[in-house]
Design brief:
The protein has 292 residues and is α+β, with helices and mostly antiparallel strands. It has helices at residues 3-14, 17-58, 63-92, 97-114, 116-130, 199-213, 250-267, and strands at 139-142, 145-152, 156-160, 166-170, 178-179, 185-193, 225-232, 237-245, 279-282, 288-291. The protein has a 5-stranded antiparallel β-sheet with strand order 4-3-2-1-5. Strands 6-8-7 form a 3-stranded antiparallel β-sheet, covered by helices on one side. α2 packs antiparallel against α3 (63-92) and α6 (199-213) crosses α7 (250-267). The protein is elongated and about 140 Å long. The chain crosses the membrane at residues 20-45, 66-91, 97-119. It is a multi-pass membrane protein. Residues 118-181 form the Mechanosensitive ion channel MscS domain. Keywords: Cell membrane, Membrane, Transmembrane, Transmembrane helix.
Length: 292
């Protein structure tokens, strides 16, 4: 190989006006690609911010979740813009993109098959956050797990039961969720009295008791209402009281109402029922003699 000839070819190529014109056009196109990518990114970011502001105004108690969704959408948008921009820039250097795209497709397919559960968990977690299905601090039940949500991630959700166990659940396993913290709850209190008691008198005492205590009960949003006789049992008459209360507070409100009604019944000498048995004794002449 003649070194002098190689050097002369290199000098001719460097000093060629066509080469510099082609290089200049490539630089201009690359700059335009970067500029357009940046403009598209800013437009998308502004649209995401506007959408998140609207959601934040509607859901003031879930501001952190709205911010998380906004960051996720911005990151995904940036990655897509960078990927497309990189492909366009490589095309300016006459890089054949077909093998590159084919290799990326095979690689992504292999990763998808190898990590199907991971991809499912991430996609489900994203939609849990995006659709506002539940928030940190909500009391939820999914499958056999019930408790307070401690953390919501893209891959797992942590639920702490009332007895202290912490359940770490992959998001892909969350198919159905019952949220007990979205709306007000209803406390239902059933009180049983004996058949010998005056039902009307018992109902009046209950009405007076709940009316007096209605304004002093914690976590209630309405005055307790005495519905009346709920059921006639074998040895008792069941009376029912209901009251609307704050989300997930119906157990505490029911306990407080039970204590108030029990005290009122004790003060007015209204007995609660107790198990009874009536027996019949047949006489020698075939008659029936009853006894207890």
């Amino acid at each position: 190989m003649d070194i002098t000839a190689v050097w002369n070819d290199l000098v001719d190529w460097v000093t060629s006006g066509r080469m510099w014109a082609t290089f200049g056009m490539s630089v201009v196109r690359i700059a335009l690609i970067l500029l357009i990518g940046r403009v598209v990114e800013l437009v998308i970011f502004k649209s995401i911010d506007r959408m998140m502001i609207e959601r934040e105004m509607k859901q003031t108690q879930h501001t952190r979740r709205v911010l998380t969704v906004g960051k996720l959408l911005k990151n995904v948008s940036s990655y897509l813009i960078y990927f497309v921009g990189a492909l366009l820039i490589l095309a300016e250097f006459n890089v054949n993109l077909a093998p590159l795209l084919a290799g990326a497709g095979v690689l992504s397919l292999a990763i998808g098959f190898g990590a199907q559960s991971l991809v499912k968990d991430i996609i489900t977690g994203f939609f849990i956050i995006l659709e506002d299905q539940f928030a940190v601090g909500d009391v939820v039940q999914t499958g056999q797990f019930k408790g307070t949500v401690e953390m919501i991630g893209l891959r797992t959700t942590r639920i702490k039961s009332w007895t202290g166990e912490l359940h770490i659940i992959p998001n892909g396993m969350i198919n159905e969720v019952t949220n007990f913290s979205m709306n007000n709850s209803l406390a239902v209190v059933d009180v049983a009295i004996a058949y010998e008691e005056d039902v009307e008198r018992a109902l009046n005492i209950m009405k007076q008791t709940v009316a007096t205590a209605g304004n002093h009960l914690d976590n209630t949003v309405s005055t307790p209402e005495v519905l009346g006789i709920q059921m006639l049992g074998p040895s008792q008459v069941t009376l029912r009281v209901i009251v609307e209360c704050l989300p997930n507070t119906q157990v505490a409100v029911s306990r407080e109402l039970n204590a108030l009604i029990k005290k009122a019944f004790d003060d007015n000498h209204i007995d609660i029922p107790y198990p009874r048995m009536v027996t019949y004794q047949r006489s020698e002449k075939g008659g029936v003699r009853d006894g207890a």
